Amino acid sequence: MQHQKLTCDDASTLETEEQTSLLEWPRLSSPSYSSTRPAPRWVTVLGPTQVLVFPNFLSVQDTGSLIEYIQQEMKIQIDDKIDPTKPRPRPVPKPGYAFRDNDRIQFQSEEFASMLWNKCGLRDRWTELWQHPKYGLESVHGESITSGPRNKKRVRHAVGLSHNIRMYRYQTGQSFGPHYDESVTDISDQLGETVSEYTVLIYLNGERDSELLGGETVFYPKGMKTLPAEGAGGASGKQSKKGSKASVSASNNQENNSSSKSNGNSSNSGSSFSYVLPNGGVAVKPERGMLLVHKHGDDCMLHEALLVNRGFKYVLRTDVVYEP
Ligand SMILES: O=C(O)CCC(=O)C(=O)O
Ligand SMILES: [Fe+2]
Questions:
Q1: What are the tens digits of pLDDT across the range 142-172?
Q2: Test site for ligand 1: of 50, 167, 199, most ligand atoms within 8 A of the Cβ
Q3: Ligand with an atom nearest the CA of residue 316
Q4: Range of the domain at 166
Q5: Residue 194 lies in a domain
Q6: CATH no. for residue 296?
Q7: Which residue's C-alpha comes closest to atom 1 of ligand 1?
Q8: Which of 172, 261, 276, 296 is deepest in the core (most CB within 10 A)?
Q9: What interface predicted TM-score (ipTM) does this complex get?
Q10: Would you say residue 186 lies in a domain?
Q11: CA 271 to ligand 1 centroid distance, Å
């Protein structure tokens, strides 16, 4: 089956939607690890550099403050504008754009992006990742983070995060259909010209700490025989039949399993972050505070967010940007 190349509708909404944060967003903390709370590690979901997760990137306190902020901001920006006597509109995607049914606030903030990159430690995590002997430049020829679509040979460096900050709330019944995330070229006083290369998603809640059921982010590796069901929510119709719990993580799994166990959370093994659906998609379950990064632009995998079957799913979204 040929799948139409659908992208998410960021570019169009950038021009039309309100771009402000009315309330003050929370100041997030620096990571603090100790012998009782050892630093978590990167776990490869689809390797070597396509999809990776970093559990407990944000603290419980920070995810709580962000959810509270999203709830309050959305009450003003979205819910207060909705007429409760009328059914909620079902979004109709523009041609070429993916079906996206979630509530979203979006604002431009150099300060917020810098807080996540510098203070919350993503810059250090990124450096550690690309200097790691298993992921580092030597071991990922051709997929190296420093080679980009513009010039495969030149070494390029990550310089920060996109200032375009997006926060999603999926209500029960909402989903984000199959799509590709596009790479965006931007220019700012702080970073100069940049090209986005990786999508950053931070899950603010999960099934273990909230009512949430469902809402997995699913990736369809290239060359797969089966693809998502057409229509809203993609493969979500099959979601109640959970896929096999097979691990699709790369070879570093052992190492990461043991480090997760030393966190005192033995269920947090590499395999518990992802599983394979009957249609071959690789599903990542939202976990409170977990960071997910995936390559986007030309190398983006088709992906979708499955239907939320119960409760709410809260996600923070930005991108890692590179020098051009
Ligand atoms: O909410 C998710 O799990 C995925 C979001 C996504 O694909 C996007 O923001 O482009
Ligand atoms: Fe996406």
A1: 444 544 444 455 567 889 999 999 999 999 9
A2: 199
A3: 1
A4: 50-80+102-138+154-225+273-323
A5: yes
A6: 2.60.120.620
A7: 305
A8: 296
A9: 0.99
A10: yes
A11: 21
What is the pTM for the complete model shown? 0.83
pLDDT digits (tens, 9 = 90+) for 274-311: 999 999 999 999 999 999 999 999 889 999 999 999 99
**Other beta carbons within 10 Å of 162:** 22
The stretches of the chain forming alpha helices (DSSP H) are: 10-16, 60-77, 110-114, 122-131, 253-261
If one residue of 217, 287, 296, 302 were mutated to test the ligand 1 pocket, choosing by the most ligand atoms within 8 A of its CB, it would be: 217
Q: State the distance from the centre of ligand 1 to the C-alpha of 188, rounded, in angstroms.
A: 24
- Please indicate, yes or no, if residue 9 is contained in any of the structural domains: no
- Extract the tokens encoding 142: 């051709």
CA separation (Å) from 226 to 3, 6, 43, 278?
A: 10, 17, 25, 9
Count of domains for the chain: 1
Quick check: is 244 in a domain?
no
